[in-house]
Fold:
Amino acid sequence: MAATRVTEPQAGELGPTGRPYSAFPDPEPLFEHGPARTIAVCNQKGGVGKTTTTINLGAALAEQGRRVLLVDFDPQGALSVGLGIQPHDIENTVYNLLMERDVAAHDVLYKTSVDGMDLLPSNIDLSGAEVQLVHEVGREYVLGGVLQPLMADYDVVMIDCQPSLGLLTINALACANGVIIPL
Structure:
């Protein structure tokens, strides 16, 4: 019996649905990083894949040589847990970054197991930020302000939002260059 050789489909070949395959070229290598493009991953419905999309797209971009920062902006902390960080065991989170003037972004930053991908983790404390920010002037721009010192170090910043359209999600949208809405 002869062995068959499995080959990758080529652009223009017809696939199983009768449509031609698309060409997805590898991105050009980068020789310097920054300033980052910010993407908010949000949907006010839960369970649609926001966190999964953030982790997988972030890892794929990092594997292509991009420097990626993931921001866990959900008080449930699923992005942090998904990357192996227990939210209750960490001292500083995005909450501290938003609410305490003496905490710098580099104090909260965690390296992940994926080269080129870092994390700003969160935990349940972040739910208190929504209440505390209500009385602040420019409250919808607080996240953008605290992320600004990191922008030169990364190519992409992805913000995993909570499943609601509250003040935290408004902050993410206000500092984002684009939005991904998983359905």
Q: What stands out?
A: The longest helix spans residues 50-63. The beta strands are 37-41, 68-73, 110-111, 117-120, 156-161, 178-180.
